[in-house]
């Protein structure tokens, strides 16, 4: 079958393309911005890519058009598909019918930590010899890819609450048919598609309705929003963090901790990751792995070899004891926990935080003061104010004594000029941030 994917260069749709190719389909696709690393990965798989949305790419007509959720009415290819009556579907729906229907799906949902926790879980299954398939919103460094089919019925997926497609406004995760479900946490996000937290809770309730009675949901008992979701309906087995499962930090930065089940110590994890938030992610990954038969002791051993996904506190450079990190954090809670983990690790060393408020929620000004407060653990803060921001970031930054600039070049110049040894520079954005990471590294090396 010839499958053509509109919006192919996103991490999720690129993963769909790789899986479809592995299943034996002929795959082509297009995107507005066809560029590395996803374009390189796809071309290495033999997938032909088209820049832009000229309708000529749909002639001759493919057997199925898979439409990404970034596509909207008015897009030339979308209009052509509808006018010509070409068969089309969404990425999540295609995945459901072509792979997930006959799999034991382990899904990871929540506002924060999905990519990291799903990566941990996929690695624990791999470490235990289960050779799982997976589709994760980031490059899993233990595997070097973001998606694969796998060799067993087990499939790990990052279960996103964002909408499915222009013609299906349900959350993606309602298509995934999980048997093992991790709910990391739940806060208000995606203000561009959800009017309030209750609207997101409703989608999580719909997800709960798809879980079989023999399935299991694993969730943090102290999360009030998730407590509300559970109270709306629970038809499966349930285990909780800070209830059935617990942990005890042996090092303040979370690099070593005890795992507890029913108040009994199961063993000690010593690993490369940092931050108490990642400890919580690890406990829930261990619980999910146990649901498919992996002994806790095996998971504890596996975590010692786990490498965090790219762009999750990824150390990009160490230049004369000045360390530069890249992190995907873009919600105040994620920013706060990421900085707390780094502070616990580096003690009194200077931390410089550089942040681009790029998400739609941030641009709309939903988390204005909360964003500023989330940066308290940093010694010096540089905020990038993009032109399309609907509120004055500078006004809040000035009150807090933070730097706010409209130019990444200006940020680089000032950070380099004030840099000192034993300093940690943390760059946070869920986008490319004008390539600031490598530009800053180059400037530090030249300096």
UniProtKB/TrEMBL annotation:
Lineage: Bacteria, Pseudomonadati, Pseudomonadota, Gammaproteobacteria, Alteromonadales
Catalytic activity: UDP-N-acetyl-alpha-D-muramate + L-alanyl-gamma-D-glutamyl-meso-2,6-diaminopimelate + ATP = UDP-N-acetyl-alpha-D-muramoyl-L-alanyl-gamma-D-glutamyl-meso-2,6-diaminopimelate + ADP + phosphate + H(+)
Name recorded for this polypeptide: UDP-N-acetylmuramate--L-alanyl-gamma-D-glutamyl-meso-2,6-diaminoheptandioate ligase
GO molecular function: UDP-N-acetylmuramate-L-alanyl-gamma-D-glutamyl-meso-2,6-diaminoheptanedioate ligase activity
UniProt: ATP binding residues: 110-116
Names of the cofactor(s): Mg(2+)
Species, as recorded: Pseudoalteromonas lipolytica
Keyword entries, A-Z: ATP-binding, Cell cycle, Cell division, Cell shape, Cell wall biogenesis/degradation, Ligase, Magnesium, Nucleotide-binding, Peptidoglycan synthesis
Limits of the Mur ligase central domain: 108-289
Pfam families per record: Mur_ligase, Mur_ligase_C, Mur_ligase_M
Family: Belongs to the MurCDEF family. Mpl subfamily.
Domain Mur ligase C-terminal positions: 311-431
EC category: ligase
Its job: Reutilizes the intact tripeptide L-alanyl-gamma-D-glutamyl-meso-diaminopimelate by linking it to UDP-N-acetylmuramate.
EC numbers: 6.3.2.45
Highest taxon of source: Bacteria
């Amino acid at each position: 079958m010839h499958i053509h994917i509109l919006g192919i260069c996103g991490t999720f749709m690129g993963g769909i393309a790789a899986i479809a190719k592995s299943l034996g389909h002929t795959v082509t696709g297009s995107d507005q911005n066809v560029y590395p690393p996803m374009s390189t990965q796809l071309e290495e798989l033999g997938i032909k890519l088209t820049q832009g949305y000229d309708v000529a790419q749909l002639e001759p007509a493919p057997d199925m058009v898979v439409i990404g959720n970034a596509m909207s009415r008015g897009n030339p290819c979308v209009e052509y598909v509808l006018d010509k009556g070409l068969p089309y579907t969404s990425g999540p729906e295609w995945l459901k019918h072509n792979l997930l229907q006959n799999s034991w799906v382990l899904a990871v949902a929540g506002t924060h930590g999905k990519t990291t926790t799903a990566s941990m879980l996929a690695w624990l299954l791999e470490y235990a010899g289960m050779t799982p398939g997976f589709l994760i919103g980031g490059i899993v460094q233990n595997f070097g890819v973001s998606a694969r089919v796998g060799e067993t019925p087990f499939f790990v997926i990052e279960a996103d609450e964002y909408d499915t497609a222009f013609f299906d406004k349900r959350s993606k995760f309602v298509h995934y048919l999980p048997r093992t479900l991790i709910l990391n946490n739940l806060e208000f996000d995606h203000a561009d598609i959800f009017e309030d937290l209750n609207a997101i809770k409703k989608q999580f309730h719909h997800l709960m309705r798809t879980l079989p009675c023999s399935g299991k949901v694993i969730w943090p008992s102290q999360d009030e929003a998730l407590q509300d979701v559970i109270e709306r309906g629970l038809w499966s087995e349930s285990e909780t963090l800070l209830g059935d499962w617990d942990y005890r930090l042996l090092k303040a930065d979370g690099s070593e901790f005890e795992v507890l089940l029913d108040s009994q110590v199961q063993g000690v994890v010593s690993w490369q990751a940092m931050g108490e938030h990642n400890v919580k992610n690890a406990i829930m990954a261990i619980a999910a792995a146990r649901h498919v038969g992996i002994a806790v002791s095996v998971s504890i051993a596996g975590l010692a070899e786990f490498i965090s996904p790219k762009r999750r506190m990824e150390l990009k450079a160490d230049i004369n004891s000045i360390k530069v990190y890249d992190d995907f954090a873009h919600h105040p809670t994620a920013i706060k926990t990421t900085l707390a983990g780094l502070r616990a690790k580096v003690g009194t060393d200077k931390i410089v935080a550089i942040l681009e408020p790029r998400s739609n929620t941030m641009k709309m000004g939903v988390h204005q003061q909360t964003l500023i407060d989330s940066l308290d653990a940093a010694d010096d803060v540089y905020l990038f104010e993009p032109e399309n921001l609907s509120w004055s970031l500078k006004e809040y930054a000035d009150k807090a004594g933070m730097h706010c600039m409209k130019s990444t070049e200006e940020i680089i110049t000032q950070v380099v000029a004030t840099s000192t040894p034993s300093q940690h520079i943390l760059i946070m954005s869920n986008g490319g941030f004008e390539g600031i990471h490598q530009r800053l590294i180059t400037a530090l090396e030249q300096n």
